[in-house]
């Protein structure tokens, strides 16, 4: 069973890293990445921050006594990691001339978990 503190911990860590990665992308990577790569990197940061805020909020509002709530936050935590961090890996490895192609299929898997998390949130609300 998941605890509120664990969910908020992941939300806080993801939020912290999103701010760091956002600043890194805006300053250190701006001259090293193409416009398309920079947009992809920023997409990873945005989705990470959106779901960080969501996780912190869910930690305040849910008691995690139901399996549905546990599955939901699992989808958000794992989905955020797979989605955003695979984008970071793809962009950074591509800019270094050694694109890690195995990360390509991981991004949509992370996105699918995020969609599933939102579906489970909708079911929780209903």
Structural class call reads mainly alpha
Which ranges are low-confidence, i.e. pLDDT below 50, for 5 or more consecutive residues? none
Q: Order of SSEs, N→C?
A: HHHH
Mean pLDDT comes to 93
The strand count comes to 0
Q: Tell the overall outline.
A: elongated
Report on this model:
This protein has 126 residues and is mainly α. It has one domain. Helix content is 80%, strand content 0%. It has 4 helices and no strands. Helix 1 runs antiparallel to helix 2 and helix 3 (67-95) runs antiparallel to helix 4. It starts with a helix and ends with a helix. The mean pLDDT is 93.
List keywords for this structure.
mainly alpha
Question: Gist?
Answer:
It is a multi-pass membrane protein. It is built from four helices and no strands.
SSE blueprint:
Blueprint: H1 4-28, H2 35-61, H3 67-95, H4 106-125
